[in-house]
Amino acid sequence: MTKPNRRDMFRLGAAAGAALIAASGRGARAASPPGAPPADNAWSNSLGHGVDSKPYGSPSPFEKNVVRRYVPWLSPTRDADASMTPLQDQPGIITSNGVFFERYHAGVPQVDPKAFRLMISGRVKKPLLLTLDQLMRYPSVSRIHFIECPANGATEWPAAQLNSLQLTHGMIGCAEWTGVLLSTLLDEAGLYPDSRWVTATGSDGAHMNRSLPMMKCLDDCMIAWGQNGEAVRPEQGYPARLVVPGWQGNVNVKWLRQIQVGREPWITREETSEYSELLGDGTSLGFTWVMDAKSVITFPCPEKPLTQGPGFYEIRGLAWSGRGKVKYVDISLDGGVNFQRARLDNPILDKCMTRFTLPWWWDGKVALIQSRVTDETGYVQPTIVQKHKFWGADPVYENNSIQTWQVLASGAVNNVQLS
Ligand SMILES: Nc1nc2c(c(=O)[nH]1)N[C@H]1C(S)=C(S)[C@@H](COP(=O)(O)O)O[C@H]1N2
Ligand SMILES: [Mo]
After folding, report:
1. What is 76-285's CATH number?
2. pLDDT tens, 184-208?
3. Which atom of ligand 1 is nearest to the CA of 103?
């Protein structure tokens, strides 16, 4: 199909609309068929609800399908589980608090903010014990960062298993976090030259604890109490969580209660049985903190097929890197043979989701669409074949490989893996 000019962009859609009007004729009042002027619907002839009925808002009932979802066979219990963000319905880079993915090892505790205490102890000159009000008194920052669980995409290591963007890529969320930099509190407590490691512990039943090198703690870690214009949600660690920008989700300790400073890493259970990866050659990686660059096309995708026949569509997607900013995103329509550069939307921020788009005149034929991000360090998102070379045949974590969606002639979209 030759590329039509801009004025013709919706020509095919308009023709289909005209046919529909002819078929529906008179009496079709409820919904306006494409091409017809807006119908005079009931909501135009009556009062809407007033300010008293919804002091805390919620999405339109027509958006009830936009919810977190989970994969029952990934974990046997709901209180030690993960749910995924519906990325197919996320228009921009911010993940709505109500659908921000969840991961917890012992359920969501209900923490009383009055009883909250944060202890900063260990190899510091002046240990601190802070109430929430005291914590919130320190100078604060607001920053937009993603948090991604390294198990995001784990099911897709052996083969394309789940035909869903949400279930293959949704263990990520991006929010504006507001709080105090960890460096501010560590400066207040006073470090010694050999105060080289920090361990953060949660107050939930899992008492999740992870060791972090001092360099990262003094760089950009923060203790956040704000999330996208309101208090951090219970699922995200109310009233305060650690945000470790760009690093594995599991180090972003929620329901925070202790920051311990020491000379050595703690080598906690989470750092031996859980988050250390066995490689193909039999050796194990001690710490794998940084989330490497990743991108995915969010439209079209299995949940959002092409429903209006051949013609113009805008390919849309999200890209991010735990090492810094997204530099560019390339799109392939033929399974990775040829690539063209996508347009990036501002803002392009450090360790943050970046939105990309590409205009596409779909000829109605089968296409294999992919996105590939390059970050500001020059790191290029790898193929699954390249990943397996280093990570071995059967890994769990860190699947940041290029995703291929197969667009069928019908417009349906499937998750496929190219070997
Ligand atoms: N206290 C505590 N913090 C925790 C966890 C936990 O179980 N308990 N789970 C971790 C894991 S594995 C991930 S991926 C992130 C998920 O953050 P979210 O639920 O806000 O998306 O929280 C981390 N912080
Ligand atoms: Mo995680």
Report:
1. 3.90.420.10
2. 999 999 999 999 999 999 999 999 8
3. 19
